[in-house]
Amino acid sequence: MTESMIIIDVGSGTQDILLYQPERLLENCPKFIVPSRTQIVAAHIRKATELGQGIFMHGHLMGGGACALAVKRHLAMGLKAYATPQVALTFNDNLELVERMGIKLCEKAPEATTPIWLGDIDPLALRQAIEAFGMEYPHKLAVAVQDHGYSVTESNRILRFRLWEEFVRQGGDLRKLVFTQDIPEVYTRMRAIREIIPEAILTDTGTSALLGIMADPVVTPHLKNGILAVNIGNSHTIVAAIHGERVYGIFEHHTSMVNLESLAKLVRRFQSTELMNTEVFEQGGHGATLHPEMHQGWDFVAVTGPRRSMAKPLGWYEAAPFGDMMLTGCFGILAGLGTI
Predict the structure, then answer these.
(1) Do 108 and 49 share a structural domain?
(2) Helices 328-336 and 205-214, axial angle in degrees (round to 10)
(3) In this structure, how many other beta carbons lie within 10 angstroms of the beta carbon of residue 31?
(4) CATH code, domain with 84
(5) Pairing verdict, β 54-59 and 81-83
(6) Contact status, residue 328 vs residue 319, Cβ threshold 8 Å
(7) Do 237 and 323 fall into the same domain?
(8) What are phi and psi of 108, to 5 degrees?
(9) What range defines the domain where residue 93 resides?
(10) Beta-carbon-side half-sphere exposure of residue 106 (alpha carbons within 13 Å)
(11) In this predicted model, what pLDDT tens digit does every residue of 175-190 receive, in sequence order?
(12) Among 100, 113, 182, 333, which residue carries the largest CB count within 10 Å?
């Protein structure tokens, strides 16, 4: 990859942005850590709630989280909420359940409503920010989002781990999950970004975080013996056993549902290959999948993510590729593309 590119790691709290300029050292490339789009949309919804206004949500399917909570509070105040069917998928893959929430589906804005645009990426805002500093806006863009997959009948948590299980059993090569061309139909959130930026490169935030940890120069030599890569994000925590370039096992939980003690216990059981999918799922997490050939051990543990301080007493190595922990996912995308 020899041309400039915007790389965005979309989280629940922040969107971490790297303006990759190949002529510069990575440490000198421009960086932005700004509120994620779900936080921005949630703020617009809360403003309408304060003013007692109905809202009309249009645009694209995006991540839920903060904006979904804001909609629920808006409806709880007895105010109206409308959405196009495409945008309504933000809140549930089953549109009947969306309507039961109280969101009315329509294609055009009803009168006396506040329009709110949804989408994980806002190209206009990106362009304004970059050009405001006298920089040229690149034509290429790569984005990581957490995509649970689309299913009307199946739990998103179950579906996500069925997809991870297939990945692990089929060889566990993370680079194959960085989509430069066709995106599997199940990944509707990634495909929605392609509607905004037709040639965007897409991947999952779990994938980008793990690839970023592997790119840390302290971590890389340990890959020959196997590592545990841990990303403790604002909303989700993912842990993977990686040997060489192959993932042998993964488990994923909600960060708000774990603490130092419970995380340490889960990791110990994972290291000993005793951790079961049901154990994580029944705790409210996404699940766990271990390849039959996954061995015990995995003593070198590298941790990253904005909530990594939770694990500080455990003495794990704090990965910060190219000196910037918050851009681990962005560097992971570059690594997955073979650029670094």
Answers:
(1) yes
(2) 80
(3) 16
(4) 3.40.50
(5) parallel
(6) yes
(7) yes
(8) -120, 150
(9) 37-118
(10) 15
(11) 999 999 999 999 999 9
(12) 333
